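Exercise 7.
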Amino acid sequence: MSSNTAYQIPVLGKAISILHAVAASPGEITSAGLARSLGIAPATSYRIIQTFVKARWLRLAADGRCELGLGLLPIALGLRQHDLLRQQVVDTLNELTEKTGLTSKVSAREGDEAVTLMRVNSNQSMALAVKEGAGFHLALGSSGAVFLSQMTEEEVARILKSAPAICWQYQTSDDVRGRLAEARRERLAADLGGFRPDIFGLSVPLLDQDGHVQGALTLTGLMHGITEKQTKTWRNLLIEKADELNYGREMNS
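Solution. The predicted structure, written as tokens, is:
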């Protein structure tokens, strides 16, 4: 296929080069650094980056460094049929939702938020639906507690101090710390109405090969009608499925 520049869009080429540069040096390069290294006018580089930030393709850290954003996930997910682990996660979500009737999801941390990467919504008539790409502050919900559980006290304190007011509408910082302690102690965090009085969430950690939390596996639904016996069953099932994903990978590697 011809590479004739007459049929190319120069600014799009610059935008693509910025994405490639950020991917090659995650969290290590700034807007000014990108402009210098790629030979792009600083004003052009800035506008491209701001456009990507709005689309959540890039994320700007507090010190100005650029990182890839989770808005790119819908594109990446198009390749998931080639990714064995991702297919295993999808299968697990389908199984969890089928067995419980609840919505299941996997979240990853992006800054001070837990962002939904994949989900299988409940097909019950009265159920909670979750959108892929939806982000929630780490002070909210059970998935946030999973990510907080591996942080230092200083980092936890910073995140809670900077949490927006909406995080404290139905809970206190002591409630968050209680979930965090539960996640450390039992490998599972439960939020029974802290996010919203009518919603519950149960989350367990998904680990990388070094044993660090890379994601949270969650069951979530409406509080109305749930029993203590059901909750116990769901907790055990979540831990079982997380163990299959975390340690089954090691056995097959």
